[in-house]
User: Fold this.
Amino acid sequence: MNTPALVSILRQGHYLIASINTALDDSQMIRFQQDLIEQIGHHRSRGVIIDVAALDVLDSFGSLSLRNIAEMARLRGALTVIVGVQPDVAFAMVELGMGTGSVHTALDLEEGLVYLESRVAKAVTDMTLGISG
Amino acid sequence: MNDESPVSADASADSPADGQDDDQLLPQLVAHLREHRTKLRQEWASRIRDAHLLDAMTPQEMSAETTSVYDNYVEVLETGSVEALQHYARDLSERIIPRGVETQEVVGIVLLLRDVLARSLFEKYQRDFRLLNRVLDAYEPAANRIAITVAVSFVDERERVIRQQQDAIQELSTPVLPIRERLLILPIIGVLDRERARQLTEQLLIGIRTHRARVVVMDITGAPNVDEAVANHLVQTVDASRLMGASVIITGVSPEIAQTLVTIGVDLSKMNTIGDLQGGLEEAERLLGYTVNRQDGAADQS
Assistant:
């Protein structure tokens, strides 16, 4: 845990927003992963948005880590959406056969919030209805 | 002035006795070619026919073109300036390229003319070997220059046509059209090769970002067929679009393309395909939550 935290994780209501501003090496990526998973429990977040708009390259370890983060977040009760993948990055990723698996992606932060709003709010409403009904 | 080649140097001792100055050889030669114009031209035309060159042309056209080529040829020999010929050759190329005339045919006919004329010179000067040598010294460089000029003009013209067509193709290649808020259509018409597929992906991904698209309808009704590489590329494009948050609906897959895609074993499980463009647009509108109602008529009554 000696690696300095390079990714700021901000809380916004029920969601966490993590914006990756610079290319991360492997140890920094692991540090980010640990921080984020911890924060989800701490803030009782329902959704996570990871913004990669500033990245002009995403290697296989990077995309695998993002997939893992999403899976861990799901286990901790939060839905993850990756936003801001650049056109070149997107095509390079599929060419190298490293998609984001089942993780949802959206165009930008705004779209990501809309997506989470529609999925998470629905889950909450469903629950409320279930209790009242 | 005869020191330039060993053969001429050999002849130089006797040359004054010929009573012929080198300056006069070329005009003499031109006069000879003008004099026998009809005969030589016909012989040339018949040799073109025998060699099955320019089969695409009618006999009348052949006759007209051979006459002008012949006259231009002689004129270049006379003046030494290839400019007029260059112009004519370019003009001729422009007319015959659309009819599928090949480079070898054009070079072939010019070389035939060169040979026919050389033969006639042999015949005329056969009794005086030294003079013949000097005549050929004058004739050959000029004739070679003509052959080069015609060939280069033809190739230049063809390259110009190819460039023009490439530009045209590039321009109409891949329009990415927004037709509703967050909805793009991408009609693909014509053969998809690697380069075009790459360009298409690039334009689509950039289009998704600039138009903030959530759904893209890719219509391939107008694409005749695709090979394995291009099919894989299309699948990658769909995946890359998804990474940017847009889902792609593919419409208008022809029976041939469907067959190709299945035979080459591209993973199509993630592809959302709908029969035709109309269906694709309806599905896209459904995904985006649009409902389309007619203002009056039956749809309103229900």
Remarks:
- Strands of chain B lie at 177-180, 183-189, 215-222, 247-251, 272-274.
- Residues 94 and 199 of chain B are 31 Å apart (CA to CA).
